[in-house]
Please model this.
Amino acid sequence: MQQKALYFLIAVCAIAAGLALYMVQQYDFTTLDGAKHKHSDFHGRYVIVNYFAEWCAPCLKEVPELSKLNHIKPENVALFAVSYDNLTDEKLVEIKEKYDMRFSLINHIENPFPFERPQYLPATYIINPDGSLKGQLFGEQTAENLLSIVSGPVLTE
Model:
């Protein structure tokens, strides 16, 4: 009887360890630097997600502003950019270096953000600390404008 209880306890521990390992390996998106992220990692923080394309002149024009934002943003703000085009990691690295992008580029989305892929570029989405969508912005943005939005009232769509 004690031997059966011991086997049962070992089986339960193995299942729990396997489940814990499985949960640790899950992610919602990865960045070009190889980091894996879960949306829940950013609860309590604003997340700014910018969609861009190399063929989009206004997108490239706002890159210095996004780099500036990444440098001056408070700790409760995370900034990511997503290429509108389905590019290889090598091409993303090339673009990041060519345009001196000083912010994280998302290279793979496993589980989507709480918004649809934009139809127009540039497009910037602001996610509230509770994970809800605060608002969407189309057109070029400045670092100051984005900072004011994450500290201001809720946007209307």
The chain has a mean pLDDT of 87.
